[in-house]
Design brief:
about 725 residues, alpha+beta, Calcium-transporting ATPase, cytoplasmic transduction domain A, Rossmann fold, Calcium-transporting ATPase, cytoplasmic domain N, seven-stranded antiparallel beta sheet, seven-stranded mixed beta sheet, about 50% helix, elongated, membrane, transmembrane helix, ATP-binding, HAD_sf, phosphoprotein
Length: about 725
């Protein structure tokens, strides 16, 4: 059975380092998959524990000169520089500044200042030289090798100060890159503060403070106002207003009471509750989200892998070009300058920085994108297929209309139906009972209870025979349905609603009231109709999400060519929903495999298709489409596994938003790659002609990398509107 492990890496200076580690890991027997990211300074390794041990995996990092620590579910700041790295940069800078000042202000022999410059070179150049030597031993060339060769050549011709300044500028640039890149990981860093160090565990009548890591499934914890919830669980006592914004992106706190689920990482704003733990530690929602984000940020986009392959040949090409410049001009300084300015750091940073920034921006808004491939694919989407139930609709029926018959009030009709449905498990029964609860009606238990499969339900209560169901059930009970009531039902059904007939009879009342006429007060007994008469019609519907129409309009205005509704529901209901939303293409009565086949047909025509579903019964279609987008999946492992993108905030508007984000990310990546290629070409041309010095080359080299990073960081300010 495969295991997955995550490492935090220290000492990487560019994406080339990450590529080198990834290559070494992939060459080991027992490694099934390895993804290393310079941007997040992490490696995620999938391995077979029967074929290789963790210690052997760690040796790969240390043998290449990198410090590595294993992280088990904790949220780490990959760019939290230790004192050693920071001290190295400042030590080199101080030594070079002191050397220059002493040379400028005193008459001390040059050997002193040169010695200080050499000391700066040794301090700053050691990690670069170490990694370069290890690469050369393995017969590989990397960026460290280019810098080491350039610095060594400068030292050989006596340019100690220039060599020291080049190393200092490169170190300073890497330091600034790390500080800047740290902003792109805030979506992960913020998760660490969501779990309190201690919680109040309930033991009998006592509350005991214990570390949150010691909570077990089944334990009951007490959470008061202002406290974070440390576990996933269900409220067993109390009411609270819960802020779920950091998990789902919902801006408005939600009300939760006994029986409701709550999630780790959320905040109790008002109230006190007792919560029974159902998931703890690594299994909680916040832990799963953290793992998903870090794994996603480490997954490379296809364009990134293409750039990495190109960069592998770029370094040897630069060495050859530098040699040609030296042979053509005889100027070793020009050749060294070419080596410095031509390092492809900006090129290889262009894609991963944009991917990490985009994924981080989306995560803060309750949208989890599973890797660079998913981000790139969603940016190319030109067709979106929606499931109906739970996606465009809420997935729960509600009472939307009540037709009064025989002089009954709406409250009487709902009360009759609620008595009949009190013990029913049908979803429509729940909607009727919810309506009765909303109106605070008293619902008595029926004396007798019979479910008529495919028809409805019959009960007896206080001498009354109550019938709730369809036309077939009425016919079986010899109850007449007037033409007007039947036409009303057809009108509601054409809207995609389900119309339930409510009727009842007693043994003491004569058949004196007509179905559509007002019954005289003398014949009304306890506000109930006479024997075997229809008393009303209740219409129920799976209500549309308020923002569904806006989402469809946003997609249409955003140049999405294909917008369709694929559902297993009947054509009448599906067509009614589609008409209200302006969706022209509808396919109803589909089995899961039918959805898959229709999506495949669209993809074979050259379309990039996104499937939007609830992530459970739509799993095959979600997995088949170019992009699977799962709605409302907090706490659902099935949805996270099936989809490429998980929308935790259950907001249908997040679909056009994430497509927009994908497009913006692709645009930023193209800008980065174009800038890096043009900039490198121009700088190499200037260096080979002697127009820039070694120090200027180092400055330009780091400037190009920072420009690419800053451009990618614009994605962190991504706006939520389409």
């Amino acid at each position: 059975m495969s295991h997955k492990i995550k490492f935090s890496i220290k000492g990487m200076t560019c994406q080339d380092c990450a590529n080198k580690i990834e290559k070494e890991l992939a060459s080991l027997n027992g490694i099934e998959e390895a993804s290393v990211s310079f941007v997040t300074a992490q490696a995620i390794v999938k391995y077979n524990p029967e074929a290789i041990e963790v210690t052997a995996i760690k040796k790969v990092f240390t043998s290449l000169g990198y410090a590595v620590t294993e992280t088990r579910g904790s949220v780490t700041d990959a760019f939290e520089y230790k004192y050693k790295e920071t001290a190295r940069v400042f030590s080199v800078g101080i030594l070079l500044l002191s050397s220059w000042l002493i040379h400028l202000l005193t008459g001390i022999p040059p050997v002193i200042t040169d010695s200080m410059a050499l000391a700066a070179i040794m301090i700053g150049g050691y990690p670069i030289a170490s990694k370069a030597i290890k690469a050369l031993i393995k017969r590989e060339l990397n960026v460290d090798a280019l810098v080491a060769i350039a610095a060594s050549a400068a030292i050989a011709i006596g340019d100690y100060t220039e060599a020291g300044l080049v190393i200092f500028i490169l170190l300073l640039g890497e330091f600034l890159e790390s500080v800047t890149l740290a902003r792109t990981t805030r979506a992960i860093k913020g998760l660490a503060s969501l779990i309190p160090d201690t919680v109040k565990l309930k033991r009998g009548d006592l509350e005991v403070d214990v570390p949150s890591s010691e909570i077990k499934v089944g334990d009951v914890v007490v959470v008061r106002s202002g406290e974070h919830i440390a576990i996933d669980g269900v409220i067993v006592k109390g009411d609270a207003t819960i802020d779920q914004s950091l998990i789902t992106g919902e801006s408005i706190p939600v009300e939760r009471s006994s029986g409701d689920d709550v999630y780790s990482g959320t905040i109790n704003k008002v109230g006190a509750v007792e919560i029974k733990a159902t998931k703890v530690g690594r299994d909680t929602t916040v832990a799963r989200i953290e793992r998903m984000i870090t794994e996603a940020q480490g997954r490379k986009a296809p364009v990134e892998r293409t750039v990495d392959r190109f960069a592998k040949y770029f370094v040897p090409a630069i060495l050859i070009l530098s040699a040609i410049v030296f042979l053509a001009t005889g100027d070793v300084r020009r050749a060294i300058t070419v080596l410095i300015v031509a390092c492809p750091c900006a090129l290889v940073l262009g894609t991963p920085t944009a991917v990490v920034a985009a994924i981080g921006a989306a995560a803060r808004r309750g949208i989890l994108i599973k890797g660079g491939g998913a981000l790139e694919a969603v940016g190319r989407v030109n067709g979106v297929i929606f499931d109906k139930t739970g996606t465009l609709t809420y997935g729960a029926p509600k009472v939307v209309a009540i037709k009064e018959v025989c002089g009954h009030k709406e409250e009487d009709i709902v009360q009759l139906a609620a008595v009949a449905e009190k013990f029913s498990e049908h979803p429509l029964a729940g909607a009727i009972l919810d309506k009765a609860g909303e109106w605070e009606l008293i619902i008595a238990a029926p004396d007798d209870f019979k479910v008529k499969k495919g028809q409805g339900i019959e009960v007896k209560h206080n001498g009354m025979h109550i019938v709730v169901g369809n036309r077939s059930l009425l016919r079986d009970n010899n109850i007449a349905l007037s033409a007007a009531a039947d036409e009303y039902m057809k009108d509601r059904e054409r809207l995609g609603e389900t119309a339930l007939i409510v009727a009842h009879g007693t043994d003491k009342c004569n058949d004196i009231c007509a179905s559509d006429t007002h019954m005289p007060d003398a014949h009304i007994k306890d506000n109930f109709c006479c024997s075997k008469e229809v008393c009303g019609v209740i219409s129920l519907s799976d209500t549309l999400r308020e923002s569904s129409a806006e989402a469809i309009q946003s997609l249409r205005s955003g140049r999405i060519a294909i917008i369709a509704l694929y559902t297993g529901d009947n054509l009448r209901t599906a067509s009614a929903i589609a008409r209200r939303l302006g969706i022209e293409e509808v396919a109803a009565g589909l089995l899961p495999e039918d959805k898959v086949n229709k999506i495949k047909a669209l993809m074979e025509q050259g379309n990039t298709i996104a499937m939007v579903g609830d992530g459970i019964n739509d799993a095959p279609a979600l997995a088949t489409a170019d992009i699977g987008i799962a709605m409302g999946v907090v706490g659902s492992d099935i949805a996270v596994q099936a989809a490429n993108i998980a929308i935790l905030n259950d907001d249908i508007l997040s679909v056009p938003k994430v497509i927009n984000l994908g497009r913006k990310a692709l645009s930023v990546i193209r800008q980065n790659l174009f800038f890096a290629l043009v900039f490198n070409t121009v700088m190499i041309a200037l260096a080979s002609q002697g127009f820039i010095s070694m120090i200027a080359a180092a400055v330009f080299h780091q400037t190009s990398s920072l420009m690419v990073i800053l451009n990618s960081m614009r994605l962190l300010r991504w706006k939520r509107r389409f």
